[in-house]
Write a structure and sequence with these properties.
- This protein is about 30% helix and about 35% strand.
- Helix 7 runs antiparallel to helix 8.
- The longest helix has 14 residues.
- The two termini are about 20 Å apart.
- The protein is an alpha/beta fold and about 230 residues long.
- About 5% of the residues have low confidence.
- The radius of gyration is 20 Å and the shape is globular.
Length: about 230
Amino acid sequence: MKKIKKIFYQGSEGSYSESVLEACFQETEYVACETFKETLGNVSSDDFALLPVENSLVGTVIEAYENLTESNLEVYLEIRKKINHALIGLQGAKIENITKVISHPQALQQCSNFLEGLKIERQPVFDTAGSVMSLLENDTKEIAAIAGERSAVLIADDKPGSLLQGLKIFEELKLNLTKLESRPILGSPWEYKFYIDYQNESNEIDTQLEEELRKVTKEFKILGRYGSIDL
């Protein structure tokens, strides 16, 4: 593998994404970005990007997937990490006096059941670590933050039965699907695209799959062939 010059990620110092990079790529320079589009747009031939694409509580991070499919980049590796959220306030703050919680939209959604019980305002910010910095800047005990304690194939078609025809190809090739999710195609009413993850170790089977799927789909794109590691 070629030497990685930089890895771009959405977030800021102290975010979950940075903790993943610190665990897996200690010798590489990390560059924080505010948006997924900026993250992917900064990648050159010697660089990589890190994107959160799914979590076990609220599912797919759609914005990340959409920007990935629009780019010319391919998935290199899947990293799975257990996330532990913490409700963080200034010293002396009491939970009964909290009126607002700030964090990344995904974190707010993941903690929605807990926050419903508190009946307080939720304000999204661009990442979890950034919410702690905002908390310090506001310097009030009435605001808390949620932060850390410290793929695929795209298919699109508008023909009746096209999804079933595509899935039959996976069955015939004895490929195990680990993800199947539909999304509407912007600007094309009643047309949908499907994100699919599947398990396969044979390049020959991959080639056969591509050939067969192109016969029954309007558009087809492989986002990457990659392995997985657990942190």
